[in-house]
Amino acid sequence: MKYVFLVFVAGLFVVSFHVAQVCAEEVDFPDAFQYPRAVGRDPFQPLVREEVTQAEVVENTGGFELLGITWNGRVSLALITYRNTNWLVSEGMQIADLKVDRIEGKRGEVVLSGDEKIVILRMLDI
């Protein structure tokens, strides 16, 4: 009985070794890809660079006057006078080529921004 078991184990070993050889011979693994060496460019820098220009910051000039601000949890509104016209604006609206970026009611401040300048309007203490 011992011999039958040893012959069975030896046969199993021979068959598994043969199968492993056949599988290894049939599979053709490709060569490892060699990445070209990067010369002259840092891979962590963006390919396109934007030129940033400094905007001129102006406070309470340019014909704008902040008359009042009202706000709740969701919406902030500001009443602005520009060239004898009253504007009721919220964030994202446009006045004379300037966009209303921020309305901060607690600080009493409205920030308008354009291509070349930023206008900060502040409430005057009464």
What does this structure look like?
- There is one protein chain.
- The protein has a domain at 56-122: SH3 type barrels (Roll).
- 20% of the residues lie in helices and 35% in strands.
- It has one helix spanning 2-26; strands at 56-59, 64-71, 76-82, 85-89, 94-95, 98-104, 109-113, 117-122.
- It has 126 residues and is α+β, with helices and mostly antiparallel strands.
- The longest helix is centred in the first third of the chain and has 25 residues, at 2-26.
- The model has no long low-confidence stretch (mean pLDDT 75).
- The strands form 2 sheets. It has a 5-stranded mixed β-sheet with strand order 1-8-7-6-5, with no helix packed on it.
Number of strands: 8
Second-tier CATH architecture of the domain at 56-122:
Roll
Radius of gyration: 37 Å
**Which strand-content bin applies to the residues?**
25-35%
Determine the N-to-C terminus distance: 110 Å
Annotated CATH topology of the domain at 56-122: SH3 type barrels
Mean pLDDT: 75
Order of helices and strands: HEEEEEEEE
What is the count of helical runs? 1
Morphology: elongated
SS content category? alpha+beta
Q: What's the helical proportion of residues?
A: 10-25%
Largest sheet: 5 strands, mixed
Q: What is the strand arrangement across the widest sheet?
A: 1-8-7-6-5
> What CATH first level of the domain at 56-122 would be assigned?
Mainly Beta
Low-confidence blocks of residues: none
